[in-house]
## 1
Amino acid sequence: MARQRGRRTDSTPKEKSAKSPVIEIEGEVVDSLPNTMFLVKPLGPDGKPLRIQTGDSDDEPKAILAHLAGKMRLRFIRIGVGDRVRLQLSPYDLSRGRITWRLRPERMER
Amino acid sequence: MSGKAELKTPEQLEAMRASGRVLAGALDAVEAAVAPGVRTSELDAIAQEYIRDHGGIPSFLGVPAAAAGVEPFPGAICASVNDVIVHGIPGGEVLTVGDIIGIDCGVILDGWHSDSARTLAVADVSPETFRLLQVTQAALGAAIAAALAGRHIGDISAAVQTTVEEDGFTIVRRFVGHGIGRTMHEPPQVPNFGPAGSGPVLAPGMTLAVEPMVNVGAADVQFDDDGWTARTIDGSLSAHFEHTVAISDDGPLVLTDGS
């Protein structure tokens, strides 16, 4: 009986963690803008909206303006409204982010 | 996942070979029964009966699932028909001409585990299907030939990957082989892909379940709602061969070939 391998997707990209500090969170895409920019609603690990910016209200946090990471543009990863994504934020400006991963629906149920 | 592999003494290896002998007999009995019109649950019953008649315990029965909320495995064999890669649950499915069926089975005898699988053609299959079976079996052969003391797990991985990909098939990466002994799954993991020379060093007394899983189409996996059955994502055929192999100073010892 074959053994299931550990999930590789749980690891964070190595290049970044060594260089500059980033905050990694998950979010749900709420709007798709031109130039591969997206508005993303930040979500906590429990799937509930996450309040991260000062001035946010608990139930309606501000959406983050996020661009698609270069490696994802190269691979033509398509992102649409409603997709769950992994985001990297700069600790210096929490209103902008970088989408580094599209989470697959299959992964979320398991 | 982590930790060191237990090295077995020659006596312990003989005990594992005895376990493997029962397993090989059970697989032979199942193989003899595979024919059009047979249900996979009947094959499961044959394996269970053979194993118990020879003093063993079917080790797959009741194996807990890797995912939460999934029932333990209900059969003594995994019956993986056509596009099922591994872990098909035996049941009412009826074999027809042209099918292929992977039979994976495990035995515990005197506390020692053995694990082996083969993929069989049900009557006539197409030449392409036959080639899939041949290549997968050849990949297992290449893996065993690479299982030499002093070399690395990655040499086994690379042997499988090279054999399979040279023939245009793909290697399933979601599942891996594993160490085996007092339990079915022990360290180390034995991937079917990766560079030669990587991973832990193979030491005499290590026992590994080596099991290439090969798809005709894409390598990706999808699971049925039962939480076990793993299918190819594109419905293409998949084959699986496996032996329990011991590393020794005299070269690889196949413990599940019935000898």
Note: The longest strand of chain A covers residues 23-33.
## 2
Amino acid sequence: MARSARRSGYESLPGAAGLRAWARRHAFSLLSSLGSLTRQPIASSMTVIVLAVALTLPTALHVTIDNVERIGQGWERLDTLSVFLEPEISSDQAQRMTSRLTAWPEIAAVDPISPEAGLVELSGQLNLGDLGEQITDNPLPWVLEITPESEVVVATLASRLEREAGIDLVIVDLQWLERLDAILAVIQQLISLLAVLFAIGVAFIIANTIRMDIQNRREEIEVMALVGATAAFIRRPFLYSGLWYGLLGGFLAWLFIRIGLIVLSAPVARLSGSYHTDFQLFPPAPEVTALLIVGSGLFGILGSWLVVGQHLRKINP
Amino acid sequence: MISFEHVAKRYPGGIQALSDVNFSLGRGELAFLTGHSGAGKSTLLRLIALLERPSRGQVVFEGRNVGKLARRHIPYLRRRIGVIFQDHRLLSDKRVFDNVALPLMIAGLSYGEIRRRVRAALDKVGLLDKEKMFPPMLSGGEQQRVGIARAIITKPPLILADEPTGNLDPDMSADLMRYFLQLNELGVTVLIASHDLELIRQLGQRVLVLKGGEMVDDLPARARLAGEADGA
């Protein structure tokens, strides 16, 4: 570029080359892009809002899944095995079994629940008052609540326990957790696809806005080309516009999500309180926020690049 | 400065604007380009500023074949040429000052330098007091002069004018043409497309005549010949 400028004799203009001229040209483009944004406040804000909505959808889905996974992680610590002993097992036998199982390397802890304790817990859960007074013959067996070591495969442990003498039934309610994991994986994949789709959407929404902007400023572009503006110079204000649209859209999407989280926090707290947990909604991670805003800005630049390039070829044959 | 060698231009759709044009214009020369509308005057000027590329032949400007110039070099070519249009081509939402300053902003000059040069150019065309106005607030003649100020602000060696007097009354037209003559005396090469034959005859400069896309006549500068005759 510098060489061609020299060859065409343009060096006769002082300050036409060098870093300061470059900075001045950039400042001109930057101001020009901001000017065109503020000159049509309604059109610009409509574009930004459409972008924000398009960006909010996949991000909100991501935040939802992220939070559901956090709940799931809490639940996985509840993956204890309930070992029902045979009804004829006595207290002594139950206690001996408890100490024997505690010695197993796969088992972290064993919590024996006597039939009486089980009855009290059950009646409490079912809201039946004092069940023990009404039932003389307690039908409940001894139950050992077993917490496996974290790296142990629960299914293997369960089948090994089932082969032990004196054990009637081992209940592992893990299947629904596995299903939840599988569902989350599917949705996660879906979000990735949606994110790609919406990113393309963002580029095209911005491209379309810039295209209309170019229609409005066709005269200006042609005049600039006529008096010797380079393609880069003509393109730059539009690239800045695309960047602003993208950044503002991304920022507004982030704001939508934060507002949504605030609105949801009270009902979520009530729900989690009813489960005696103190679950809280987590905002999107800083990386996700950065990806949202910066990515949107980059796609803004991409969108305007496509449109301006196409238009420039018509002016410079 | 400029030479056309067997230049033809056919637009998409089959319209033959120029069929075989040959002429040359030396550095520091001034010439009028006349012909009926549709004779190809505008096309000829557009080929020099590379707003169009020739279909055939060579358009040479400052020793380079313009038709073969790479697209990325076009802006630098255009900075060597000041173009003035009949419809002025001013930006109506920008002030007179900013319109004239545009080529310098593109060049990346400092604001102080731009300010100095723009005021000098506006002073030269007699519009210094109108710098804060918007083009639609000015008369046709004044707008044309803003266009001229913009064309000369970078001190290009070549000025092309396409029907610059098209919308002006005879007095203003004569003024404007005299201004081009002054520019020419300062060493600028000038090519003016016009069909104002009466005015052209009065000025007695070199006249190129286009007809149906061909150069049918090339009349040498009568005034200069007459002047030489006087001096002899």
Note: Chain B has eight helices and ten strands.
